[in-house]
Amino acid sequence: MNSPTPEIVPIRSESDVVIVRQNVRKWSISVGFSLVDQTKIVTAASELARNTLIHGGGGELKSFLLQEGNRKGLCLIFDDQGPGIPDIEKALQDGYTTKGGMGLGLGGSKRLSNEFEIKTEVGKGTSIKIIRWKA
Amino acid sequence: MNSKLPTIVKEFETQILQEWTKNQLSQMGSTDKISESELKSESQQFLNLFQISLQSGNTSVRQSKEWAPIRDYLSNLSRTRASQGFSPTETATFIFSLKKPLVARLRTEFEKSPAVLLEEVTASNELVDALGLYTTEAYQKGREELIGRQQEEMLELSTPVVKLWDGILALPMIGTLDSSRTQIVMESLLQKIVETESEIAIIDITGVPTVDTLVAQHLLKTVAAARLMGADCIISGIRPQIAQTIVHLAIDLGSIITKSSLADAFAVALDKRGLQVSSQRQKTALRGEVSAQPPLNH
B5-155 architecture in CATH? Predict the structure, then answer.
């Protein structure tokens, strides 16, 4: 079950990436994540927020607190109206980069999350959803 | 028109002051940011200066030299209030709450002639509005100065390259690393390596909350640049949660010496320089055993 209203954080500049990290840290504390899990989801959010900024030309983060029975989690959705990802397989490959980064961010954030989903359309934009459940 | 306002303010200064402070106190609700007596003395000072400037007959509050003392006073007041945590509204209320007692006073004086009353009220409101706006502007300026000062302090904070020993530098990094700040920090480290002819630089990331791929890339680039200059880098302060995250991100730090604490890194650095730290107590104990003779008499 999703929380009724998502919190939305705009991602328009480098300083917004910092705000994303601070917010995700705050939310993950409120869910009750351990320090390791906090760090994992904050790092994943940092990668995806920067991708939204650099590759997507800016966008926004929507966050939902999840609760399924006893299970609690945090769901983050990064949306942009950028050029989209032509080859998802390739983008997820470690070391593949188009803008001079390390090429580990997308695959890394997948490994740092419990659930990972990419919806993308060339020319329309990209939406990436990650979920981390409380261990 | 020759306004009566100056004479009225002069004549009824005490009453106006009383009503004004009462107004302010009721509008502020709580008085935890400023005491009642403080407020009274500030209002008194202002009214005093206000009265003097009024007598000049000049009404251009923003430029004329007759109003200069008032402007100075308000600038100071706004700046103090900004640093005391007053909101812009609360700060401007100080001036705007003067309207009511002034108008009330004018009304009792000109009850018989509405036309004059209207003119006097308009004139006095214009004056108070100008002063109020000036206060808000000064408040804003005070905040901007505060932010500017904090930014400068932050930049200074961000580049502390320290020398731990001959040939050993340490760079304790704190806060966010993926901004232009990182560039400055890294440049200052490389510069310091040249200046001090250091062979080992310890980059401590205990104070960095998140290490993502961009931060890692910055670190790797710095280590590579330092290596080209003949210095080895040790990265310390890698906490358990950071270590796990780095593994998941598949970042390869295998070519760099990493340690969990700055102390460990320093020990490695000393070792590399062929230096040793030993306990003074152990040494004297050892010496005592070797020369177990009574001390010589002088």
Answer: Orthogonal Bundle (1.10)
